[in-house]
UniProtKB/TrEMBL annotation:
Its EC number is 1.2.1.3. Keywords: Metal-binding, NAD, Oxidoreductase. It comes from the Eukaryota. One of its GO terms (molecular function) is metal ion binding. Pfam families: Aldedh. This is aldehyde dehydrogenase (NAD(+)). PROSITE patterns: ALDEHYDE_DEHYDR_CYS (PS00070), ALDEHYDE_DEHYDR_GLU (PS00687). The active site is at E253. Residues 20-483 form the Aldehyde dehydrogenase domain. PANTHER family: ALDEHYDE DEHYDROGENASE-RELATED. It catalyses: an aldehyde + NAD(+) + H2O = a carboxylate + NADH + 2 H(+).
Length: 499
């Protein structure tokens, strides 16, 4: 039977090229558990060829003036916006995220970052510094690109991750070989074609497909200068270790188990809305999810009541229906993992199941029953030692933890090896800043959750990552500094002079 999409090949040196491995895998529509396309797997020879193409392109692209680079990246952002719905439709089929989400967030926030860095470099953002050292001597600095870089993406925000990595990489004058997650590979070729159409020279952005072994080959390749990785902490550690073997630069965007502290004075509706966005948006498959929700003990009854009322607004259903705001999990393997955590929460951790649990969402249409759907799930009266409270589940599973004092909540919030995100809900301005200041996380929010605009540098503390993406800071890790001292005195200050 013909699949909905044609076979995906590789894309390097400016065009689609067949893989030589003779091997393929299938990408699956998680809403229905049916295959979407065959994907050709890159062989080592194919990866070498893509890296060589990126290496050749580097000599041209790195010398392309900022304004000219910016014009191409801006054109790519325009093309992405023009094709928003078409791309979002494929993202929905590939990732299982509702079209209400992919059509308003995924492509848009990717194009925003492209536009942001195009404007940044076009406006002189990569200029160096000049210092007059003394009357006849100067120091000037230059921000030089690194070379061929590798981008490795997770499956939860496929094209957005590809754009967050490639926009800054290319703006800084580097070239990239990108590997999408094997669970959501369809966007890779589309993005490469858009870049080419926008005028990007052949070889500047390349895509190779495959699973972890393709990623491992890329990250240990001697011709690669930097690896930008998004994925789990455990994989990130392997990737950083392999990159360190040849002294590559790394940016690591990893997982989290982020705390959301609701203070006693918080506005109840806002707090519940924040907790729901922090747990059920994208069916809980967001790295910054606030899955540990700390609530004042004396707020238990109203908080749980309002949460249960609002859970009725989580609407699983056909992904292209404009009422649907909750999709399936993105793959069978992930579906089984999340169900196992829910089972563990009930049977081993013995947390109180307030809502959801095992089984499919209510009223799910018959034709979606085979898909990887789970219920939005809330455990309450949780304790810090439970496995569901300690480990990243990456699904729609909220743990409510009650506390007596805000200081206690902060201490418990920080008692984790991860430090990706954190947030606080309070009407007290001073308390908001005091609590945020004490929370050990790289991305923090006050009275909101989840927004991550191009201007905001984001990255994790502790085991949640290394470096940041986006914002002015985000581009600094894609360039290397060169400092030059120029002496105009006409004489070298030597100690080896005749006595
Ligand atoms: P994984 O770590 O399983 O995979 C991430 C990517 O790494 C995939 O492309 C994967 O390939 C590839 N990979 C696997 N093994 C290796 C290896 N040895 N060397 C190089 N690459 C390898 O993460 P998931 O895809 O499951 O993504 C979910 C995770 O990502 C969550 O932990 C989430 O928190 C995190 N994440 C972090 C974000 C952040 O900005 N901090 C943003 C989004 C997600 P393949 O899948 O094809 O096997």
């Amino acid at each position: 039977m013909a699949l909905p999409f044609p076979t995906r090949q590789l894309y390097y040196d400016g065009q689609v090229r067949p893989a030589t491995s003779g091997k393929t895998f299938q990408t699956i529509n998680p809403a229905t558990a049916t295959p979407l396309a065959d994907i050709q797997i890159a062989s080592h020879a194919d990866i070498d060829a893509a890296i060589q193409a990126a290496d050749r392109a580097f000599s041209v692209w790195s010398k392309t003036p900022y304004i000219a680079r910016a014009r191409i990246l801006q054109k790519a952002a325009t093309l992405l916006r023009e094709r928003n719905d078409e791309i979002a439709r494929v993202e929905t089929l590939d990732s299982g995220k509702a079209f209400t989400e992919t059509s308003t967030v995924d492509v848009v926030t990717g194009a925003d970052v492209l536009e942001y860095y195009a404007n940044y470099i076009g406006g002189g953002g990569l200029n160096g510094e000049t210092t007059q050292l003394r009357e006849d001597a100067w120091v000037y600095t230059k921000k030089a690109p690194l070379g061929v870089c590798v981008g490795i993406g997770a499956w939860n925000y496929p094209i957005q991750i590809a754009l967050w990595k490639s926009a800054v990489c290319l703006a800084a004058g580097n070239t990239m070989v990108y590997k999408p997650s094997e669970f959501t590979p369809l966007h890779g070729e589309t993005l490469a074609q858009i870049y080419t159409e926008a005028g990007l020279p052949a070889g500047v952005f390349n895509v190779v497909n495959g699973a972890g072994d393709v990623g491992a080959y890329l990250t240990s390749h001697p011709s690669v200068a930097k690896v930008s990785f998004t994925g789990q902490v455990s994989t990130g550690m392997k990737v950083a270790g392999s990159a360190a073997g040849s002294m590559k630069y790394v940016t690591m965007e990893l997982g989290g188990k982020s705390p959301l502290i609701i203070c006693p004075d918080a506005e109840l509706d806002n707090a519940v809305d924040g907790a729901m966005m922090a747990n059920f948006y994208s069916t809980g498959q967001v790295c910054t999810n606030g899955t540990r929700v700390f609530v004042p003990r004396n707020m238990k009854q109203p908080f749980e009541k309002r949460l249960l009322e609002k859970l009725a607004f989580v609407r699983a259903g056909p992904l292209f229906d404009d009422q649907t705001n909750f999709g399936p999990l993105s793959s069978e393997v992930h579906y089984k993992k999340v169900l196992e955590y829910i089972r563990h929460g009930k049977d081993v951790d013995r947390a109180t199941l307030l809502a959801g649990g095992l089984g499919k969402p209510e009223n799910l249409p018959h034709d979606l029953q085979a898909g990887y759907w789970v219920r939005p799930t809330v455990f309450t009266d949780c304790t810090d030692d439970m496995r569901i409270v300690k480990e990243e589940i990456f699904g729609p599973v909220m743990s409510i933890l009650y506390y007596d004092t805000v200081d206690e909540a902060v201490r418990r919030a920080n008692a984790t090896e991860m430090g990706l995100a954190a947030g606080v809900f309070t009407k007290d301005l001073n308390r908001a800043h005091r609590v945020i200041d004490q929370l050990q996380a790289g991305i923090t929010w006050v009275n909101t959750w989840g927004e991550s605009p191009a201007e905001m540098a984001v990255g994790g503390w502790k085991k949640s990552g290394l470096g940041v993406e986006n914002g002015h800071k985000g581009i600094e890790s894609w360039v290397q500094n060169k400092s030059t001292l120029v002496d105009m005195s006409g004489a070298v200050a030597t100690v080896f002079a005749k006595l």
